[in-house]
Amino acid sequence: MKEIEKRLNDNGVRPTAMRILIYKYMAEKEIAVALTNIENVFAKADRTTLYRTLKTFEQKGIVHQIDDGTHISKFALCEPGCNCELEQDLHLHFHCTNCDETVCLTEQKIPHINLPDGYVAEDANLVLKGICEKCSG
């Protein structure tokens, strides 16, 4: 728990009990999770509190949001030192069409793309779809 508290503090987030629990849950899952997943686990918590916690984590660089094509926003923990900047920390995501899980492939970096003059990229998201290693084996 001290490690989680330190990570939150280092990112400018006050480590409340709920924030620690949500961070711990996400770290244990090791996959991207939707707000509804978190709501199901913390059913007695206020939905707004859970949503605000995820948004605070996102604003402070603790999680990043993934659009995996399912029309459900998912969130994954950022690696320590990640700043999720468009020019530096982009990586692939993989969505399994069998088990419906989405994972970050942080070792697989997205190369920088030179856009034509006048174009300004604000976000990038590359999702590969197929069968994950758990489902294919």
UniProtKB/TrEMBL annotation:
Signal sequence extent: none
GO molecular function terms attached to this record: DNA-binding transcription factor activity; transcription cis-regulatory region binding; zinc ion binding
InterPro entries in the cross-refs: FUR, WH-like_DNA-bd_sf, WH_DNA-bd_sf
Sequence positions that bind Zn(2+): 96, 99, 132, 135
GO biological process, one term: regulation of secondary metabolite biosynthetic process
Note accompanying the cofactor annotation: Binds 1 zinc ion per subunit.
This protein's record includes keyword RNA-binding: no
Keywords tagged on the record: Metal-binding, Zinc
UniProt KW Metal-binding keyword: yes
Xref: Pfam families: FUR
Cofactor(s) this protein cannot do without: Zn(2+)
Name of the protein in its database record: Fur family ferric uptake transcriptional regulator
Native source species: Zeaxanthinibacter enoshimensis
